[in-house]
Amino acid sequence: MNTSNQIHSESSILILIDLQGRLMPAIDQGEAILNLCIRTAKIAQLLEIPIIGTEQSPISLGSNIEPIKSFCSKTIRKEYFNACADGLTAAIPSNRQQCILMGCETHVCLMQTALKLIEEGYDVSVIVDGVGSRRALDKQIALERLQVAGARLITAEMLGFEWLKSAQNPVFKEVLALLK
């Protein structure tokens, strides 16, 4: 359940779902989504926001793409579509209640993970321009379902400025360069 209408960098964690080498070429707009995930991870790093990755059946689908792996302090290797069933919630620091989700596939692993996080009381936001599915319709319907379930739908640029709060932020210029 969303506890506040605002997203705060000090209570956020970025969760990058299944940005794997064998999966991404099949994703609609996959390259753009991957690039946006990398830019958002750079912003999170500048603002000292922790980043966790997940990998679905890595033996079959391979690991996360290298730039993604390098940003993640921890990567959850999973067989369940819902990453919480494979230890995601245990990996989230207790002072980080705002979960920001990006990745693939919107209607499978990302949605099932987000729904479980909402059920467990986390404040969940989904970056709509940073998620993908093989079919655009699956992505659209999943986003509608997530919004009804209580997830906040946002864009990467919206998030970046909300994390910054002010042009006085010491990393403003670096973040602005990544957003534009």
Give the helix/strand layout.
Elements: E1 12-17, H1 30-46, E2 51-56, H2 58-61, H3 66-71, E3 74-78, H4 88-91, E4 98-104, H5 106-119, E5 123-132, H6 136-149, E6 152-154, H7 156-164, H8 172-179
Parallel strand pairs: 1-2, 1-4, 2-3, 4-5, 5-6
Characteristic terms for this protein:
about 180 residues, alpha/beta, six-stranded parallel β-sheet, globular
Describe the structure.
This protein is an alpha/beta fold. Helix content is 42%, strand content 21%. It has helices at residues 30-46, 58-61, 66-71, 88-91, 106-119, 136-149, 156-164, 172-179, and strands at residues 12-17, 51-56, 74-78, 98-104, 123-132, 152-154. α1 (30-46) packs antiparallel against α8 (172-179) and α5 runs parallel beside α6 (136-149). The longest helix has 17 residues, at 30-46. It is globular.
